[in-house]
Structures are given as C-alpha cells and as structure tokens.
Amino acid sequence: MSSIVKNQSDLPNGWVFSNLENIIDRISNGTTIKQNRKGIGIPVTRIETISNGTINFDRVGYIKGLTKDLISKFNLIPGDILFSHINSDAHLGKTALFDFENITVLHGMNLLLIRPTKSCAYSKFLNYFFHWLRFNGKFISIAQHAVNQSSINQKKLKNLSITLPPLPEQHRIVAKIEELFTKLDAGVEALKHAQVQLKRYRQAVLKAAVEGRLTAE
To answer: Where does the record place the Type I restriction modification DNA specificity domain (predicted)?
Structure first.
C-alpha cells in the first residue's frame, strides 16, 4: 500500500502519527447470544447490517430477555464505529458509524466495535480514514486469508498507524469531505437525468427513422 506520508516531518503542522490503540477507548467483539429475525426484543447488529456502509435497520437481528448489565455492556452509543473484520475480501474492512440518539441497539457478533477517544479523535474523521485505508488496500494486506473469507485480528488493528490532525482540523476536514460528497451526489443525479433524456432522444430518433420522418424534407 502506498502512504500519504512516511515521516513525521512530512506532516502538516500539528498533525501526528498515532497507533489506533492510543486514540480509542475501546475495541471489542459483540454479543454471541442467539438472535431472532422476528422483531422480538432489542435490535442487534449483524454482519450484513453495515454492508452498504451505514446502519441498515432492515438487516438487524433481535435479542430478548437480556439483563440490564448485558444491555449496558453491548449497547452502542453515538460515535461508535462498527468494523467488519471477518468477511469476504470484497467486504473486509467495511465500517459504519453509529450516530443515533435515544435508541437502543446492541453490538452483535462478527463486527468489531471501535469507540474513539472524544478528546483526540472525531468519530466521523476516523471513519473516513478507515474508508481510505480500505480503498487503498491496507486491510487486505494485513488480513489472514482463507477460502472465501478473510479476517483481521485486533492486535493488527490496534497497531494501525493513523495520521491524526488536531481535533478542530478533523472537524473541518469532515465538513469539507461532506460538502464535496454532496456535490458529487448531485452530479451523479444530474448524470442519471441526462442518461434518461438521452435514452428518450435515441428512442425518438429511431421512431422517426422507422416512420420515414428522419430524412423527410
């Protein structure tokens, strides 16, 4: 994998290199308690819950009959990042940010929970950093590979080198990313509209051709 920078001196002023373990409060596995898909109980994440990079509540399981202690142990809080550490190569390293208030969702098996330290790491920034590492092939490079499935252990994740700007700069970077992504999404929608219009135009040309109007004077 190619890196943005290799030396501390190459970083912008105020930025530092840090291992992931130094900027998080927690990294842990989820509950392995048996789930149901009948909507009975408290929602719990599954590996497919984050397959599109967000929390998809249509793809959660449910657990009933839990004690308050277990609910507290596995309850997700705003700012938590779910990380797919056991998956096919195509999906390995996918993440989703839990950013919901006043809702109880439990952390389920086959996803790691990463809880950033709020005093030094902005969850949205770290989540985008994970996206970059995945797209750049870092997670594939540190994974153990088996038939149809790969995995990354916690030790390797904890040792990941993160280029970390000051906290206010992390917020500014996230705001800029989201501004640019919004423009990109608008561009995609405009392109889709243009493609629809082009299809209609092509159909109109062919209709005129078969009706003898295309070359009529």
So the answer is: 12-182
